Amino acid sequence: MGDLPRILQVNKLYYPYIGGVETVLQNLAEQIRGRCELDVLVCQPRGRGSHDTVNGVRVARAGSLGIWLSVPVSLSYPFLLRRMAQDADLVHLHHPFPLGELSALLFNPGKKMVFTWYSAIVRQKLLAQIYRPLLERLLDRVRAIILIYPGAERSSELLVARAHKCHAIPPGIEIRRYDLDEALSREAQKIRSTYGGSLVLFVGRLVYYKGLQHLIAAMPAVAGKLLIAGDGPLRQNLERQAFEIGVADRVCFLGRLHDRQLKAAFHACDVFVLPSTHCSEAFGMVQLEAMACRKPVVNTRLATGVPYVSLDGETGLTVPVASSEALANAISKLLNNADLRARFGENGRKRVLQEFTAELMAERTFRLYEQVLGDEV
Fold this sequence. Notes:
Elements: E1 6-10, H1 20-32, E2 37-43, E3 50-54, E4 57-62, E5 67-68, E6 71-72, H2 77-86, E7 90-95, H3 98-107, E8 112-117, H4 125-141, E9 144-147, H5 157-160, E10 166-168, H6 182-195, E11 199-203, H7 212-218, E12 225-229, H8 235-244, E13 251-255, H9 259-268, E14 271-273, H10 285-292, E15 297-300, H11 306-309, E16 316-319, H12 324-335, H13 338-355, H14 358-373
Parallel strand pairs: 1-2, 1-7, 2-4, 7-8, 8-9, 9-10, 11-12, 11-14, 12-13, 14-15, 15-16
Antiparallel strand pairs: 3-4, 5-6
Helix pairs in contact: 1-14, 2-3, 3-4, 6-9, 7-12, 10-13
C-alpha cells in the first residue's frame, strides 16, 4: 500500500457521535479507505484523547475540555494535526470547524488541501466576523472547494469570489443499509402497533434551527401521531409546548435511538418531516434516509440544499419556512392519500440511487483528490 496516496480527514467529531457532517465523513471514509492510506483526526466531545479503528478506519481523537459555541476546546488538536499532516499527501478539511481550519492554516505549510463547505457559521455572528479574515486566507490556499449541492457558491460571497475552485459533490448514503429485512420489518411493525394510527416522523437534534416548534404547533390539525427521534437542549421547552396546546398524547419524544431502531422508525412512519427554519440546515441528510426507506418527505423552502434533496411534487412536498399551517396542510394531504405517498416514496428511492449513494460521492471525491495530487486543479 506504499504507493497509495495518504489522506488526512480533519473534522470536529466522528462516530459514534452522529450529526450530518459526521455521517458524510464516515460514509466517505469507509468508501475510500481501500484506495488510500487514510487517517481521520477529530476531537473527543469531552475527555482524554484516544486512538481507535472504526469499521477499518483509523481515527485519532484529541482530548477536549468540552464543546463551546459548537466547537470542541482542545489544546492538543493543533499539535496532533501538525504531526499527522507531515506524513499526508493531502489534507481534507470539513467546514465549519474553526479549530481545525486555524490549525491547518498555521501548522500545515505547503500541504495540498481540499475543503468541504457544508454551511457558513450562521448563529455565532461575532465569531464569524472575527474568523472571516482567517477563513479567506485558508480558502485562498486550498486547491479545491467541495460544495454539497449545485449552486451553493451563491450562498456566500466568499465562495462567489472563488467559484473557479468549487466542485459540487452531494453527500451520499449506503442505501443497502436501509433495505427492509424480516427482522427490521418486525421492529417497524412493533412501532406501528405501539403508537397506532398514522405516524409522522422527525429525526434530528432538538436545536433552534430544526423548527420543531412549528411542527408541534401543526399537530392539532393533523390526524396522526408525531414521533420525535433525537435529543437536545430544547426538549423540555418542546414537551411543555405539546402539553400546553393539548397534543402531548400525540407527540412522542423517543429520545436518541440507536442505528437499527432509527431504521425501524423510518420504515414504520407514513410521512417524514424536516421543518428546518435556518440556513444552518444546509442539506438534511435525514431526508436521504427517509427516501431510501421509500417515505415521502415534507421539507421547507430554505435557500440551501434542503429542497434540492427532496423535490417538491416529485419525492414530497416543500412548504414555506416557519409556517405551521403549511406543514399541517402538507402532512394531512399525504396522510390522506396512500397512492401519493407510495408514488413519492418510490421516486425518492430512485432519486437516492441516481444521485446520492455513498459510492457515487466517494468516486467523485477521490477523482478530485487525484486531480489535486496531479496538479490538474
